[in-house]
UniProtKB/TrEMBL annotation:
Top-level taxon in the UniProt lineage: Eukaryota
Protein name per its UniProtKB record: GS catalytic domain-containing protein
Short name of one Pfam family: Gln-synt_C
GO terms assigned for molecular function: ATP binding; glutamine synthetase activity
Family: Belongs to the glutamine synthetase family.
Length: 464
């Protein structure tokens, strides 16, 4: 009887606690939201305060609260945490109640609204490649992140054999994603020890970004339960291919038809006024969109490749299918932008694949950059650079025939923050965003420049 009474008391206390939480949630959901400390925009990936006074969160205003607005449309449950309800929020300025310039969801929503004003929907899909290790957070720290054990040995892209190892974990990623409302289109092994590739189902751009960021959360959570650490680091090993975060994009009109697709009567011969053979099965709007992406690509690189390590993935260039130049081509995996159109796919599947980002991208910023540049291209009716180039020769680099992308985060940030950067245009991202986001990248560069690496010690300690 004592045990039963004690259990009942604990249950009552738990119910009361849940009721208070429910009341708090309902109050926040029915009002403007709830207060949340602005320091989340003022510290880096390791909770170190940014070295620069940033616009949104800084010491000067004492890290005041922002308004966190609950997006009820993002409701789902976390299946591996007893189906606890889960929502995403967007952040508003407490004075104006307007979205703050640095909020990732707010930035992408603003771009999507621009497209909606023209009667278009931004549609996207993301693919992740990621290494996995038979480790735990504790073992990573104990080993000082060295001599890690891969999930499986050897190079086994598209392997039926390797999926039979760690079967429960492999299936959990697919099954839990479905329960978590992050549907997948493909899930398989990729080239490299312990590497998987997962393709997320095509959907509206904001939903795609939500799903992409939540897939990382899901993979790491499921991995912890199975003694596996998935890594979305872009280039964990110098002698192996890196991890991409390829992005597929298109626009659809009010009838759900791809704006990049040709009308039925042109499908046999292609568009007669296309600039080049590679784009003859791409609509005029699709060609302008592509031209906009290519024109602005060098100016938004930190939004696609936001880390120091990410640029090491691009150093290999075509050798690792990690393009590092302003290039495009029909069905070319060596180009920065791959044109996917008839005759290789049905007209409804006509789209562009941007192959520059790595798995370490922030999907909100990466999708915002691509669609903002593409819409700019349509508005300005930009012409393509040409002719299309997939393979870059040493002569092309020397003569400047092909424009190279910035080769480091430092160079990319300098280019993005320069006064005449396309990223600064009001119709793209504007000064406030560039100053804030650029400031966070300058902080990352400073930390890298101050670091003493193992490579330096091994190379110089004895012989310098």
């Amino acid at each position: 009887m004592v045990c039963d009474a004690s259990h009942q008391q604990r249950r009552i206390r738990a119910d009361a606690s849940f009721l208070k939480s429910t009341e708090k949630f309902l109050s926040a959901a029915s009002s403007d939201g709830f207060n949340f400390c602005s320091v989340i925009f003022g510290w880096d990936i390791h909770d170190t305060v940014y070295s620069k006074e940033l616009l949104i969160s800084n010491r000067a205003n004492g890290y005041r609260d922002l308004i966190a607005s609950i997006d009820l449309a993002t409701y789902r449950r976390i299946p591996w945490e007893n189906n606890v309800p889960f929502f995403l929020v967007s952040f508003l300025d407490p004075d104006t109640k307007e979205p703050i310039c640095a909020d990732p969801r707010g930035v992408l929503r603003k771009v999507a609204v621009r497209a909606q004003a023209k009667g278009w929907r931004c549609i996207a899909g993301c693919e992740y490649e990621y290494f996995q290790f038979k480790e735990t957070p504790e073992s990573l720290a104990k080993k000082n992140f060295r001599d890690l054990q891969p999930l499986t040995p050897g190079m086994h892209g598209y392997s039926l054999l390797r999926t039979q190892l760690n079967t429960q974990y492999f299936n959990d990623l697919f099954d839990e994603s479905l329960k978590f409302q992050v549907p997948l289109e493909g899930h398989h092994t990729e080239t490299g020890p312990g590497v998987y590739e997962t393709a997320l189902a095509y959907t509206d751009a904001l939903r795609m970004a939500d799903n992409a960021i939540l897939f990382k959360f899901l993979a790491k959570s499921v991995g912890m339960k199975r003694g596996v650490v998935p890594s979305f680091m872009a280039k964990p090993w110098g002698n192996l291919p890196g991890c991409s975060g390829h992005i597929h994009v298109s626009l659809r009109d009010s009838n759900g038809k791809s704006l990049f697709a040709l009308p039925e009567e042109q499908l046999k011969t292609g568009r007669p006024d296309a600039q080049y053979k590679d784009t003859k099965f791409l609509s005029q709007e699709g060609e302008w969109f592509l031209a906009g992406v290519l024109a602005g690509l060098p100016d938004v690189m930190p939004m696609l490749v936001p880390t120091i390590n990410g640029y090491k993935r691009l150093v290999g260039g075509e050798a690792f299918w990690a393009p590092n130049a302003v290039t495009y081509g029909y069905d070319s995996r060596a180009a920065s932008v791959r044109i996917i159109s008839p005759p290789s796919v049905p007209p409804s599947a006509t789209r562009l694949e941007v192959r520059v980002p790595g798995a370490d991208m922030n999907p909100y910023f990466a999708l915002s950059a691509i669609f903002a540049l593409g819409l700019r291209g349509i508005e300005k009716k930009l012409k393509l650079p040409g002719p299309p180039v997939s393979h870059i020769s040493p002569e092309d680099r020397k003569t400047g025939k092909v424009q190279m992308l910035p080769q480091s985060l430092e160079a990319a940030t300098e280019r993005m923050m320069r006064p005449d950067s396309i990223a600064r245009e009001d119709g793209v991202f504007g000064d406030d965003f560039v100053e804030h986001f650029g400031g966070t990248r300058q902080h990352e560069v400073r930390l890298w420049n101050e670091a003493v690496t193992n490579w330096e010690v091994e190379r110089y300690l004895e012989l310098a």
